[in-house]
Design goal:
Elements lengths: L8 E12 L2 E12 L2 E9 L44 E2 L19 E4 L9 H5 L7 H4 L2 H4 L13 E5 L6 E4 L11 E8 H5 L4 E5 L3 E4 L7 E10 L2 E5 L3 E4 L19 E2 L15 E5 L5 E8 L2 E7 L7 E5 L18 E2 L3 H4 L4 E6 L7 E5 L11 E2 L9
Parallel strand pairs: 5-6, 18-20
Antiparallel strand pairs: 1-2, 2-3, 4-5, 6-7, 7-10, 8-9, 8-11, 11-12, 11-13, 14-15, 15-16, 16-17, 17-18, 19-22, 20-21
């Protein structure tokens, strides 16, 4: 029997201010909780963040802490399983018709679901492991290579693969091209409900027969279609499929009023050997009066660094009594996440960095890595999506 913890009084204030050459942008959000009731107030004054000369303003002076203070964990009763599903496999139906908040999950003939351990964070990397990798160049025979025209056929047998409990991504999967068609790649078009009304479609390129679409919002309807291509042009577009994302996990992250936590693109200095990810870099300030920087492997896997200032180097965070699972606190996750192996730090020379032993403990600065009791890891999965390219 799971027990729920009732928070008597909780006040969360989210403020961020940025300055540019053309004026300020102030967004203030205030949410007050008493028991299960809440009152939210947000206000925003827009501005244009452009035409700033380099060095005219120190960015870190205007980054206000947005990382949340820790709160006691709470639990809820999970919905009962209503459909038999095989853990670790792709199933036609979800294991439960309801998500964590009691909302009905979306089902359709073209839907597939991957069952996830409820105690584990969402992992796009894990979900992709269930799909077969087809390299289009190896599928083309000599006859199709001599074709001098765009693809003739629509992509077929398209399925939408979702992971239970994970609203932020889906994977579109489709069949191999027909033998009489020359296909060198695909364009995957996606749009939200509002974007469809305004005929605004985002296009992503795929060199195989599946593609993940990331950074989806909870409880939102999206539309997808796929189009084959080659050097001579684009083929016909497939039928349009729709999908409604699940609810956000209410126990995972406390979101600021008015939207997502604020990550600002910024290329910080770091030791490249310490990161298993090579994508875009983002920073945010925390209530620890330090900056947290992330480097993306994808939207759900990233390396977490910490720094004293934007112009100073960012360092790995080591864990004296684990593998950094509690470092997910630095990206506003209440999960003890999944991390990479510690052997990476044991194979590298000792270095300077931050370390601590337990969640909520302040970090210290010193020598970490090999021949120290403070190992670090190359990536984290905390269940919290961080938007960006990777």
């Amino acid at each position: 029997m799971r027990a729920s913890v009732c928070v008597c009084v909780c006040v969360h204030v989210h403020v961020w201010i940025m300055m540019s050459c053309r004026g300020p942008h102030l967004q203030v959000g205030l949410t007050c909780w008493r028991g299960r009731d809440s009152l939210s107030l947000t206000h925003q004054v827009p501005l244009r963040l452009s035409d700033c000369s380099s060095g005219s303003t120190e960015l870190d002076e205007f980054l206000i802490p947005t990382t949340l203070r820790p709160r006691p964990p709470t639990t809820t009763t999970s919905p009962p399983q209503e459909h038999p599903a095989v853990p670790g496999h792709v199933n036609r139906k979800p294991s439960s018709a309801l998500d964590l908040t009691g909302k009905k999950r979306f089902t359709a003939p073209y839907m597939n679901y991957i069952q996830k351990d409820p105690g584990a964070p969402c992992s796009l990397t894990e979900a992709l492991e269930y799909l077969q990798v087809d390299i289009l160049g190896q599928l083309m025979d000599k006859d199709t290579a001599n074709h001098r025209q765009p693809p003739k056929n629509k992509p077929h047998n398209i399925t939408v693969v979702a992971m239970e409990g994970c609203h932020s991504f889906v994977i579109l999967d489709w069949a191999r091209p027909l033998k009489d068609d020359m296909v060198s790649g695909y364009m995957v078009h996606s749009a939200s409900y509002d974007d469809v009304l305004n005929n605004r479609w985002a296009a992503l390129d795929s060199q195989g027969t599946h593609l993940a679409v990331e950074n989806l919002k909870p409880n939102s309807r999206y539309y997808f279609k796929v189009q084959a291509k080659n050097v001579f042009g684009l083929g016909p577009v497939s039928e349009t499929l729709t999908y409604v994302t699940e609810s956000d996990d209410p126990l995972l992250i406390e979101r600021p009023p008015g939207g997502e936590p604020i990550w600002i693109p910024f290329s910080f200095k770091y030791n490249h050997a310490h990161s298993g990810c090579k994508g875009s870099q983002y920073v945010k300030r925390t209530w620890y009066r330090k900056f947290v920087g992330v480097i993306l492997c994808n939207s759900l896997r990233y390396k977490i660094f910490m720094g004293e200032g934007l112009r100073e180097p960012f360092y790995s965070i080591a864990d004296t009594s684990g593998q950094g699972e509690d470092h997910c606190q630095f990206v506003d996750s209440y999960f003890d996440g999944r991390t990479g192996p510690v052997y990476q730090s044991n194979a590298l020379p000792a270095a300077q960095g931050f370390y601590r032993s337990h969640r909520q403990e302040p970090v210290r600065f010193g020598t970490i890595g090999r021949r120290t009791p403070h190992p670090f890891v190359g990536w984290y999965e905390c269940g919290v999506p961080i938007p960006g390219k990777w």
